[in-house]
Amino acid sequence: MITLNTLMEKAYVSVENKLYEIDKVKEVIDSTYYEATCLADALTQKVASLPSKENLTPSYKNTINDVYKMYDSMSMYARTFVDKSVIEKLVELKELADKFNTNVEGEQENNKVEETNETNQTSNNENQTGESTNNSTGE
Questions:
Q1: Is residue 5 within a helix (H) or strand (E), and if so which, with residue range?
Q2: Cβ-defined contacts of 91-99 (< 8 Å, 24+)
Q3: CA 23, 15, 77 angle in degrees (round to 5)?
Q4: Which residues of 126-136 are buried (b: 16+ CB within 10 A; e: fewer)?
Q5: Cα dihedral sign for 15, 16, 19, 24?
Q6: CA dist., res. 6 & res. 20, Å (int)
Q7: Which of 18, 79, 90, 122 is 20 to 30 Å from the Cα of 31, by its Cα?
Q8: What is the number of other CB atoms lying within 10 angstroms of the CB of residue 93?
Q9: Phi, psi of 16 (to 5 degrees)
Q10: pLDDT of the chain along its 139 residues, tens only?
Q11: What's the confidence (pLDDT) of residue 109?
């Protein structure tokens, strides 16, 4: 609540039970509004620092995910202070990074499966060779 008081010929503004000289007050901002606009500004700066979709590389995956998590954790009220074009850029980069990185991770996973299959094949061959040797010696 804001009230105006006059003490000793000076005007004061009372904000949350504290008095401030009116000549020194530039503005009174609600803390929820202030936090929301600060978050929106921080998000806007982070998105601006991200590459364009043409310059996107796998090395940006974690950064894009972190920025997206920041956006995702913002209240609906805070999101209203973020320009629509900023959100569109972030969503587009996230979608592209997810697709690009899914392919890279899928290739890595396929390589692991191939390595496991090769290891199993080698083990099977060794077992068969050992069994053949044992059988031919009459054991």
A1: strand 2-7
A2: 92/53, 93/50, 93/51, 93/53, 93/56, 93/60, 93/64, 94/64, 94/65, 94/68, 96/53, 96/56, 97/56, 97/58, 97/60, 97/61, 97/64, 97/65
A3: 110
A4: eeeeeeeeeee
A5: negative
A6: 11
A7: 90
A8: 21
A9: 50, 50
A10: 555 555 567 888 888 888 888 888 888 888 999 999 999 999 999 999 999 999 999 999 999 999 999 999 999 999 999 999 999 999 999 999 998 745 444 444 444 444 444 555 555 555 555 554 455 455 4
A11: 43
Tokens 């504290």 found at: 18
Alpha-carbon distance values, 38 to 43, 44, 86 (Å): 9, 10, 15
d(CA 93, CA 87): 10
The rounded Cα 45 to chain-centroid distance in angstroms is 14
